[in-house]
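Progress note, sequence design subtask.
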């Protein structure tokens, strides 16, 4: 008996569905100079995951590295819930897009975001929470002593005093960083992997497992089992370094990996790269895949034309024209 066709739509949350970076916004709201702190730790996260390849570390683990600092500065579960609910910023037309896609096929959200934020988004968009994967966190279940609180705040000050650093595109080792950046990275290594483990509150960092990197790929594998489909039946939308393992899994399995307003990490690993100021292209591309499969996208190219790409686009257009119209007709003016 032939397998019944079932295609599935899967998406990240922050980026394709919402404008937020919930963790970054909480850091900015509740920590001193929190935006600068989060940016520095987030870049360190990129370095650890994709350049240093630290054992046991994955992209998105920023969300566990920052938790002892959240605890030390008084953020609790109630604060996370309240802040998440009142600060949701959805991508225009996202409700319309989700309504369209959920009417066609099973839809899932696979997000690195903390679960309180995903619950708030699900409430706002009438999306079923049981179709989501996110980073479970219960910050109130971890106590912090006054001594640990003082030490964590001291480590925070040390991080803030470190020079800004950058990771060059294409870097493959610490030697590709500038000497100043290497020095900052070494100090961060000491703080997170030498100093922090001496504290009892480090248990908060250890026990949380963000849904990023490989965990997103694991979530997709779970979805495949639950839905009884195959990887080639999956379309996945993402936008950042936390999505690249999911992109690789889906793309190599014959499905469609779509970068939506993605950064350089995402674009390099995607099957398609889409930029848009609203979610309607997600609905369009998603419904094309769900209703007709990946074959719909064979030879597809949509791009703005300019003097730099005109020749390449013309060659591609003529090649596809001859393939579709036949060589004889396609060669006509």
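Output:
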């Amino acid at each position: 008996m032939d397998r019944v066709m079932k295609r599935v739509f899967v998406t990240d949350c922050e980026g394709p569905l919402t404008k937020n970076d919930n963790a970054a916004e909480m850091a900015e709201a509740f920590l001193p100079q929190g935006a600068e702190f989060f940016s520095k730790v987030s870049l360190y996260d990129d370095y650890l995951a994709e350049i240093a390849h630290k054992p046991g570390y994955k992209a998105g683990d920023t969300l566990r590295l920052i938790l002892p600092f959240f605890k030390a500065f008084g953020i609790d579960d109630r604060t996370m819930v309240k802040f998440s609910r009142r600060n949701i910023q959805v991508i225009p037309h996202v409700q319309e897009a989700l309504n369209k896609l959920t009417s066609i096929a099973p839809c899932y959200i696979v997000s690195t975001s903390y679960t309180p934020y995903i619950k708030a988004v699900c409430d706002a968009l009438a999306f079923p929470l049981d179709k989501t994967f996110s980073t479970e966190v219960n910050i109130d279940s971890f106590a912090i002593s006054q001594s640990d609180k003082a030490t964590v705040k001291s480590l925070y000050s040390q991080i803030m005093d470190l020079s800004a650093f950058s990771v060059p595109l294409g870097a493959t080792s610490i030697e590709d960083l500038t000497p100043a950046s290497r020095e900052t990275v070494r100090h961060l290594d000491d703080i997170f992997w030498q100093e922090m483990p001496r504290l009892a509150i480090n248990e908060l960092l250890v026990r949380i497992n963000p849904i990023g990197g490989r965990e997103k790929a694991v979530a997709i594998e779970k979805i495949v089992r639950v839905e009884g489909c195959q990887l080639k039946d999956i379309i996945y939308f993402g936008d950042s370094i936390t999505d690249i393992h999911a992109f690789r899994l889906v793309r190599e399995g014959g499905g469609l990996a779509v970068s939506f307003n993605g950064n350089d990490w995402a674009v390099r690993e995607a099957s398609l790269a889409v930029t848009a100021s609203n979610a309607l292209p997600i609905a369009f591309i998603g419904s094309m895949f769900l209703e007709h499969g990946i074959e719909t996208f064979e030879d597809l190219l949509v791009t703005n034309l300019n003097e730099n790409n005109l020749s390449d686009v013309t060659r591609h257009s003529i090649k596809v024209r001859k393939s579709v119209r036949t060589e004889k007709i396609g060669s006509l003016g």
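The chain is about 50% helix and 10% strand. Work on this subtask will continue into the next period as scheduled.
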